Amino acid sequence: MSNVPLSEAAAEPKVLDIQHDTDPAQDHGTARRIPHLGHTVLFFSLAVTATFLSLAVVLAIAHLQGTQTVDHHPLLLLGVQALGYLLTLAAAWWLFPRLWGKSFLEGIEWNALAARRWWYWVVPAGVALSAALQAASAFLPKPPKDPIEQLLLTHQGAWALTVFGILMAPLIEEIAFRGFLLPALATAYDWIMLERTPAGLQRWESSTLHSRAALIFGAVMCSVVFALFHGAQLSFLWGPMAVLFTFSLAASYVRIRTHSVACSTLLHATYNFTIFAALFAGTGGFHHMEKLVN
Fold first, then answer.
1. Minimal CA–CA distance to 92: which of 45, 53, 52, 51?
2. Is 194 left (phi over 0), alpha (psi -120 to 50) or beta?
3. d(Cα 174, Cα 188) in Å, to the nearest integer?
4. Model pTM?
5. Which of 95, 9, 111 is nearest to 47 (CA)?
6. Which of 16, 45, 136, 141 has a 20 to 30 A CA-CA distance from 243?
7. Phi, psi of 153 (to 5 degrees)
8. What's the rounded Cα separation, in Å, for the pair 161 and 176?
9. Contact at 8 Å (CB) between 114 and 123?
10. Is there a contact between 173 and 264 (Cβ–Cβ < 8 Å)?
11. Do residues 24 and 214 touch, judged by C-beta distance below 8 A?
12. For residue 70, what are the contacts with CB-CB under 8 A and spacing of at least 6?
């Protein structure tokens, strides 16, 4: 016979949070889904604002007028993008912990430990994926070079683009697409497909684990947006965009499989590193960029 008072025994069991407290005494209440679509819209709004702000700063420093002038200075255009990325990260790092009640890295499931644990297959996967997709790209229509890609025609510009492409672009883009957008889309899918029954609502309140269908939906739609994000750079040609879509699916798989944005960032950085390493080798250390003209 139980020694628990009848009033307590009759009470409904407490709902445990996904943050995985298994002791009811440590329960934090209804599971919170972080980040959701609202957080994602806010993040991308910060990114747009930061880009315009960085453009204004660069124009003021360089004493230029109008974006067309910046387009004729690829290095300045790269500086606008880099500064915009840094401002976005700084603003997000400050804002979202105040909304989430947890650190920024914990909220986006950065999970650096997973990257340290699984680097030995993530890095080779990035190299293999880059080699395969670049080989496939040889048979696809090539887009005209955009202003930033013009940097590859100079020694200094090639180094600047290499550093940006290996270090900064993978970090910010993976935070945006795999840290925010993918889980937000998966959460939205699960909410739409949720059974509106007491049992279904209790599952929603007790766990933030996504269904397999939601993760597939999130990965596919996130990859569509990722390809479109780079669409202008690729003149919206279907072939190059399909390559980016395929890469994004692979990065999404790594992020889902490892529960780590750090792992997808490592894959992305390795993918880009392989491309720039091939360029470095093929142009004599970026000293013979004229070979790229042909």
1. 45
2. beta
3. 20
4. 0.86
5. 95
6. 45
7. -85, -5
8. 20
9. no
10. no
11. no
12. 55, 58, 59, 64, 76, 77, 80
Largest pairwise CA distance in the chain: 86
Tell me the DSSP string of the chain: ---S-HHHHHSPPPPPPTTT--SGGG--SS---SS-HHHHHHHHHHHHHHHHHHHHHHHHHHT--SHHHHHT-HHHHHHHHHHHHHHHHHHHHHHHHHHHSS-HHHHTT--HHHHHHHHHHHHHHHHHHHHHHHHHHTTSPPPPPPTGGGGGGSHHHHHHHHHIIIIIHHHHHHIIIIIIIHHHHHHHHHHHH---SHHHHHHHHH--PPPHHHHHHHHHHHHHHHHHHTTGGGTT-HHHHHHHHHHHHHHHHHHHHHT-HHHHHHHHHHHHHHHHHHHHHHTTTTT-GGGGT-
Over the stretch 8-40, which tens digit does the pLDDT of each residue have? 444 433 333 334 444 444 445 577 899 999 999
Place of tokens 């739609």: 221
Six-digit token pair at 9? Answer: 């025994």
Of 107, 73, 114, give the one whose Cα is nearest residue 92: 107
**Which amino acid appears at position 218 of this protein?**
G
- Backbone Cα Rg of the chain: 23
| Type of residue at 174 | E
The string of pLDDT tens digits covering residues 112-125 is: 999 999 999 999 99
Q: What is the pLDDT of residues 163-213, one digit of tens each?
A: 999 999 999 999 999 999 999 999 999 999 999 899 888 888 888 899 999
Contact 100, 109 (CB under 8 A): no
Question: How many CB atoms sit inside 10 A of residue 58's CB?
Answer: 20
Mean pLDDT of the chain: 86
